[in-house]
Amino acid sequence: MTQVQPQTIAGQTIQEQPVQATLPKHISPGETPEQHAAFEARIAAGDKIEPGDWMPAEYRRQLIRMISQHAHSEVVGMLPEGEWISQAPTLKRKTILMAKVQDEAGHGQYLYHAAETLGATREEMLEALLTRKAKYSSIFNYPTLTWADVGMIGWLVDGAAIKNQTMLAGCSYGPYSRAMVRICSEETFHHKQGKEMIVAYAQGTPEQRRMAQDALDRWWWPAVQMLGPHDSDSPNTGVLSRWGIKLKSNDEVRQEFVNEHVPELLEAGLTLPDPDMHQNEQGNWIHGPINWDEFWAVIKGEAGLGNERLATRQAAHDEGAWVRDALQAYADRQRRSASEAAD
Ligand code: BYC
After folding, report:
1. Which among 163, 240, 274 is positioned nearest to 266, based on CA atoms?
2. Atom of ligand 1 nearest to the CA of 139
3. Is the pTM value of this prediction over 0.85?
4. Domains of the chain with bracketed CATH
5. Contacts of residue 334, Cβ cutoff 8 Å, sequence gap at least 6
6. How high is the mean pLDDT in each 10-residue block of the chain (343 residues)?
7. Which residues have any ligand 1 atom within 6 Å of their CB?
8. Would you give the distance in Å from CA 172 to the centre of its chain?
């Protein structure tokens, strides 16, 4: 508490009430620095924070924001590839793609459950998605124009996602960290099948090579953007790093992604759509400037397919209402039978 000296105003002595010293932004009203210190000591010791544990309100809010947006990305992320299931060129490619798209639905489920452990309801999260209060990954607002886009999504988008999610597997919140371990092992299969497909086309007929290069030309920059704004423009990284949610910054993860993928794409005989790309003395591949205006326009739905994606999700949500009603009626009946049996 700050001690306040009495003041004399218009001849009267005013004894002001002691005022609460301003607390840092990450400490919410009602929380004490001591509670925060104990919480941060647990994180420093490598403990996982579990659902029933005390946690700062801002830690909870940040996790709900991030995990629910991650869940939305998995679910909306089914749309660009899902469009190609009926047009896959062979039975083998079709079964792989079906398995991949089903995996993404499963990832959405694990993640919605992880966010529910923090007190968010499924209804609130879906409402936030459908009314644009919550974001989902910019990458899924790009169209899949040819079959090669399916392979390029596996190679680049899942490749970028693995870099980010391997880091999140070590995060301080138990349910998110454990979901990431399982998701990453499935993403590894997605990444391998995408790379195998594109390498085959890059070494195939001239038409296949053209298709692979065209897919790289369109997906490279969105994949680089997907890992988030530069650290200098990333308002959430500070507090997420402080609390062991993000163990690496956006630019660090992006550098890992670029370092792994550039040599592999070049080895496949493809050309990066970035005239500034070069390797520096430390061995890092350095990319040219990123078009952040495009990134934000795509997120806001001013460019790309954001409006169509949300309309598709809204239609699926409306058409699925009877399933949710039926599940609710079944759960109510089970509860009634259980309570009648107990009487
Ligand atoms: N798109 O302070 P920042 C998959 C927002 S799906 C849209 O750096 P943060 C797959 C950000 O939300 C895998 N918005 O944020 C599925 C924030 O706005 P709000 C998707 C973005 O959280 C199907 C603002 O920009 N992975 O693998 O520290 C098929 C400032 O950013 C984007 C995840 O979701 C973006 N790309 O860091 C195939 C991973 N980037 O929320 C594959 C979980 C930033 O304050 N999420 N924004 O309004 C994360 O790791 C982090 O949230 C991010 C951003 C690295 C993405």
Report:
1. 274
2. 36
3. yes
4. 34-275 (1.20.1260.10)
5. none
6. 44 46 84 96 97 97 98 98 97 97 97 98 97 98 98 98 97 98 95 98 97 98 98 98 98 98 98 98 98 98 96 97 96 95 87
7. 65-66, 69-70, 73-74, 77, 104, 135, 137-138, 153, 157-158, 161, 164, 226-229, 234-237, 240, 250, 299
8. 16
